[in-house]
């Protein structure tokens, strides 16, 4: 059984731990009695979360659910090639390197990047790549 | 029989104070795990009933959760 000691603000890490199977999480500032209760709960096969952490987990869960909806709401006009290029931008490749990787001309790559930026209404290639990553669209590339 | 509790915390002082506090309750047998690597703990089959782990010790979390 694993009980985490955490502080509010670690919601991202915490959610990953929950997915991995921790049984509880308690704030470091919690009282000794709360800690004892948490231990008792987890050894009895239950789970325990400090109320603040439970709120954080729910908020993060809701955010992830919204992002998952965004996955389904990927605009149809974003092409697989544009997503592929966004992934390569995210990996740190320059347009020239992307062109070489995909056997395209630099002008074609620039055109794809320009179109992607316009469709997403973002300020630049890096922001476009971040946008694609944030909305989990990269997984569409493999489909 | 007391539950075996091991404390993995970045601060040894914090771990020791927690052990001292828990040890006043006969239901718990707590000890500090500072200085023990997660691999060592798992490989040695020394997993406690409850491992209390500092969320800021990702190496320990990664090993124990896998």
Keywords:
heterodimer, A: 143 residues, mainly alpha, Rossmann fold, Arc Repressor Mutant, subunit A, 7 helices, 62% helix, B: 66 residues, alpha/beta, three-stranded parallel β-sheet, 39% helix
Walk me through this protein's architecture:
The complex is a heterodimer of chains A (143) and B (66). Chain A is mainly alpha-helical. Chain A has two domains: 3-72, Response regulator (Rossmann fold, 3-Layer(aba) Sandwich); 80-142, Winged helix-like DNA-binding domain superfamily/Winged helix DNA-binding domain (Arc Repressor Mutant, subunit A). Helices cover 62% and strands 8% of the residues of chain A. Chain A contains seven helices and three strands; from the N terminus they run E-H-E-H-E-H-H-H-H-H. Chain A has helices spanning 11-20, 32-43, 51-72, 80-90, 95-102, 106-120, 125-134; strands at residues 2-6, 24-27, 48-49. Chain A has a three-stranded parallel beta sheet with strand order 1-2-3. The longest helix of chain A has 22 residues, at 51-72. By secondary structure, chain B is α/β, with parallel strands linked by helices. Chain B has a single domain (3-65), classed as Rossmann fold (3-Layer(aba) Sandwich). Chain B is built from three helices and three strands, in the order E-H-E-H-E-H. In chain B, strands 2-1-3 form a three-stranded parallel beta sheet, with helices on both faces. In chain B, helix 1 (12-23) links the parallel strand 1 (3-8) and strand 2. Chain B is globular and about 30 Å long. The mean pLDDT of chain B is 76. Chain A binds chain B through residues 1-7, 10, 13-14, 17, 20-22, 25, 28, 32, 35-36, 39-40, 42-43, and chain B through 3, 5, 9, 14, 18, 21-22, 25, 27-28, 49-55, 58, 61, 64-66.
